[in-house]
Design brief:
Layout: H1 4-8, E1 11-13, E2 20-22, E3 25-26, H2 27-41, E4 48-49, H3 51-73, E5 80-81, H4 83-95, E6 109-110, H5 122-135, E7 143-144, H6 145-159, E8 166-167, H7 169-187
Length: 189
């Protein structure tokens, strides 16, 4: 649900990377990905996704990413990250094609202290809430597969300005610029 606009624009997170990469995208691709993502998020397989299921999926995903990043950074595998390990990882990140760690801070980190904060949702959580609200067409507090798919296809159709059933680089760029302008207008820039 939260990735519907990204899916519609043909952008998905590259495996192991926080950066977004364009991919060839057709309407059929978007529909298939929306259905697949919905199936992942429908934890109890009741055909509907709730805000709680979205939050749980987000938490599981972040935990997995943080664990993987911790494992990469903990070079000596002693269960903590020294300043030297952090600096070495940062150096590799700056010189290569590596995603930044999903946490902030320096040196002396223990595995259990690698969170974003339990209480706040952060930017992704707020975006997911907005996307949930937009996908919940009948405003009943749940999103069905049909609603999720329709939301993704509606967004696709908005981006596919030449109506050829595929999103090209120019359409992708125009959609990003439009989203950026809308964000700036909303923030008062």
């Amino acid at each position: 649900l939260a990735t519907a606009p990204l899916i519609a624009q043909g952008m998905s997170g590259r495996e192991g990377h926080g950066m977004m990469a364009p991919e060839p995208t057709t309407r059929a691709d978007v529909e298939a990905r929306a259905k697949s993502r919905f199936a992942e998020m429908d934890a109890n397989k009741d055909g509907a996704v709730t805000q709680a299921e979205i939050a749980s999926t987000r938490t599981e995903h972040m935990s997995k990413m943080q664990g993987e990043m911790f494992t990469k950074m903990d070079a000596d595998k002693n269960g903590s990250i020294s300043r030297a390990e952090f600096d070495a990882h940062h150096q590799n990140m700056m010189s290569g094609d590596m995603a930044p760690p999903p946490m902030a801070g320096h040196g002396g980190m223990k595995r259990k202290h690698m969170g974003h904060g339990e209480g706040g949702k952060g930017r992704m959580g707020r975006m997911e809430d907005r996307m949930f609200g937009m996908a919940d067409a009948n405003k009943d507090g749940i999103v069905t597969e049909a609603e999720a798919t329709q939301a993704a296809l509606t967004r696709f159709d908005k981006v596919d300005t030449d109506r050829d059933g595929s999103i090209n680089d120019a359409e992708r760029k125009a959609a990003r610029e439009m989203m950026r302008a809308e964000w700036k207008a909303k923030k008062g820039y």
